[in-house]
Each structure stands twice: as C-alpha cells, then as structure tokens.
Amino acid sequence: MVKGITKRVVVIKSPDPHIFDEAIFIVKDDVSKKSGVTNQEILRQAQGVAENYIRSQKNMRRWPKVPPAIYTLVGAGATGIIWALTTFIF
After folding, report:
1. Domain map of the chain by residue range?
2. Tens digit of pLDDT for each residue in 59-72?
3. What pTM value is reported for the model?
4. Non-local CB neighbours of 19 within 8 Å, separated by 6+ positions
5. Where do the DSSP E strands lie in 1-90?
6. Other CB atoms closer than 10 Å to residue 50's CB: what's the count?
C-alpha cells in the first residue's frame, strides 16, 4: 500500500555501468530546513558515497575468479587425502 508521503531523492547515474546503473539516495526531511545544507552539498555527498562504494568493490576482488570445477577437484583431492590418512593410520 502506498501512502501520501513524499520524500526527496537524489539519483546518481553511474560513471561505470558495469557495476550499477544508478544510485538512489533518500534525503532526510529536515536536512535543508534546519542545518542550511544546500542542494549542491547534498549532491556532492551522494556522489562521494557512490564513488567510495565503487572503489571499495573494485579493491575487494583480489583473487582471480576460480571456476567451480577447480573447487570440486580440490575438495575431492582433500577428501581423498584425509580418507587415505585415516585408513592407513587406524
């Protein structure tokens, strides 16, 4: 159900469309009224948050993408080694 409440939003288009198309920020109601923050400051802060998010996501991927078949082979090999060790020790 939608009520009759309006919110101010800032929509930032992505400079790198491979990560996201756009970011939507919902602005608090009392920001510009009480604290005197300008629209330019709100837009600048939203752009900064979006840029920091892009940088953090690019830095998180340090390991190369490994195919699922490699995980399967490593898991099967580790299981075989553990089985062999427990069989010959006991």
Report:
1. 8-63
2. 666 667 788 899 99
3. 0.50
4. 54, 57
5. 8-13, 22-27
6. 21
